[in-house]
Amino acid sequence: MPIVTYVLPDGSEHAVDVPPGQTVMDGSVRNNLPGIVAECGGSCSCATCHVYVDPESQAFFDEMTDEERELLEFADGAQDNSRLSCQLVITGECEGVRVTVSAENG
């Protein structure tokens, strides 16, 4: 099972097994990690699951949709490597994914 490392706003790191087919958001919520609020439950409508994807991990995920891009335009602290974790679907090839949770969520 792929392991996703979440770097939380306090600097702590948590490595979590996330099954293929689930999202980076699911892995955080199901393991009660703080920082990813996920108010909309993963429907790509709130941006409270904003993360920064490490450069080495970006190739694991599909390109951003227009809907995701528009939400991130209004997200506090958005950067070039910003993504919504509800849109980052884990596959069997995603071993070693690292994301940093935005301190601006929620």
From TrEMBL:
GO terms for biological process: P450-containing electron transport chain. Residues 2-105 form the 2Fe-2S ferredoxin-type domain. GO terms for cellular component: cytosol. Pfam families: Fer2 (PF00111). This is Ferredoxin. Its cofactor is [2Fe-2S] cluster. The keyword Iron-sulfur applies. Belongs to the adrenodoxin/putidaredoxin family. Keywords: 2Fe-2S, Iron, Iron-sulfur, Metal-binding. InterPro entries: 2Fe-2S_ferredoxin-like_sf, 2Fe-2S_ferredoxin-type, Adrenodoxin-like, Adrenodoxin_Fe-S_BS, Beta-grasp_dom_sf. GO terms for molecular function: 2 iron, 2 sulfur cluster binding; electron transfer activity; metal ion binding.
